[in-house]
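Researcher: Next entry in the queue.
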Amino acid sequence: HPIMLRNIAMVYEAMDDLPRAIDYYTQYVTTNPKSAGAIQTKIARLAATLATWPSLQLNSSPPGAIVRVGDIKNPPRGRTPLVLRLPPKRQILALELPGYRTVERPVLFEAGSHRSLTITLSADRPVAFIQASQPGATVKIAGKVMGQTPLRLPLPAGTHEIEVTAPGQAPIRQ
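Model: Structure for this entry, 174 residues:
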């Protein structure tokens, strides 16, 4: 529906996502609205503004992270590697990739700058949940007391020697 296309374009324009705003305004113009001339002028103005904005070649290690601008709840701008053109001001970039911690990083987009940035993502740490038939059993990992059951522990990837000892019972080692 043409009105929806125009409204979506206006939302993207308000969010400083000018490439998407231009795309939706262009789709709107193809519906032959009465305001086609004014919208074409707006598209040209937005394209000229976009050309003046600083650019950032954003990479992630590993690649393929979803990139959002401003807030983790905002629509994705794409996946790394990605070139972002944003207004010259401090922006918050959020990168997310399944199996990795979400990163939110402030980046200053300076007028006239064109630069590159690589953000290294950290793998999520596996979490061990240790439970015994009796609450309060002592849990040791590699001989170090970590707490009592039930116990939730973030662990680095790999094999771990776990010992659970409950009063009056033989220790369980895995």
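Model: The mean pLDDT is 90.
Researcher: Noted, moving on.
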